[in-house]
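pasting for the record
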Amino acid sequence: MSQANTTEATERYPDIEIYLKFSDATLLTPFLKAHLEEVSEPQIHRKGARWPVSHQGQNFRVQWVPNAVGSWSSLWFNSDQTPWATDQDAAQAAAKMLNQAVRCSPGPWQPGDDPDAWLEVTPQGEIQQIQWPEHNT
């Protein structure tokens, strides 16, 4: 494992997506409230949950999909107006506050990238490059 590196991003990602091992969406609400300006109660539905949120003057939704990849659940911020410029920035904040490993893409996807190459961030801030095939949890 390597120590956390500062993300060198010249642009904000158009959206943010991280992966967590949470089975209860309501456990994510305190994390969202700590980082976004306004967070409504989650709208729980059969396929996950959605939070109407507001940050930096933009209204958008945060969506949680349980078991999106094996036992890992997706948390997707459908906006570029989040507190984080990149998935890695969000993963570091989530891992620290939620005290669990969080996975994310290593950068914006480009043609020819290895689709199984991911980052795993520990609560201590360590970042490890991993291979994460969709069939392997």
